[in-house]
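The instructor's notes for this session suggest beginning with a concrete chain rather than abstract definitions. Hand out the sequence below and ask the class to guess, before any prediction is shown, which regions might be ordered.
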Amino acid sequence: MQIANVKIKTRKIHGNNINLWDHDPLFERRVQNATDGLSNDCFNWLERVANNNNDNVTVITNYIASMKTEANLSDSYRKNIILLLSKFSIF
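After discussion, reveal the predicted structure:
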């Protein structure tokens, strides 16, 4: 298994850099687990969702983790679920 190097995104709010993933130290790891073996598009979509609402990303990653334990998900199915849920949560 290969672990990707990930830059932690920050957002400037009122002159201060705020780490988007500071509130939960395992947040980044859950995102990496959900997107393991998938293209960077999946990670980027989850990152876009995190910019709007971290709770939605937590729900998506928890859902993927639950599905991985219940069924042998193919990479394409995981990718489709991540992309669709990410798009739905943004709009």
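Then share the key points. The helical segments are 27-34, 40-52, 54-70, 75-90. Residues 19 and 86 are 20 Å apart (CA to CA).
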